[in-house]
Amino acid sequence: MPVDEPNARTALARVLDAVSAALFFIMFLMFIVGIVFRYVLGNPITWSLEFIMVAFILMFFWTIGLNLPLRRHVAFTIVYEALPAHGKRVLKVISTVAGIAILVPSLPAVLSITIFEQRDSTPIIHIPFSLMYGAFLMFLVTFIVRLVSALVPMFRSDWRDHL
Fold this sequence. Notes:
The chain is mainly α. The chain has 2 domains: 1-68; 71-163. It is built from 6 helices and no strands. Helix 1 (5-40) runs antiparallel to helix 2 (47-67).
């Protein structure tokens, strides 16, 4: 039985959103725990801030890499919206190719530092730095794939539907 593509995308989007929300909730919960320990119990815990920082990094790169639609990223739409369809197509191709051209060359260096940082970890709770660099690597790879998938329709006959 074929998968209904819009429903599959919607289900995937819900799962991705749930992971982002869970990471935010964990980050917020640790923030509250840190406040309670410091100001209510008078016994500050040192690991909560480090945990919050790691959760934020993971949440940030997860969300912008996988959840946030390309149309919702920071963009200069004043010029784009004023252009006719062919102009929008040219601008979209140029900006997407530029994004790919900027991000792809950084992949080997990011992969290298991710592998190198496996030996080092955060000072308090010993989370490997490779996890944080890995989150950035995941962002780069998924964002490049998303840019390529946004570029391909610009060369098909139905390109106007993808502006």
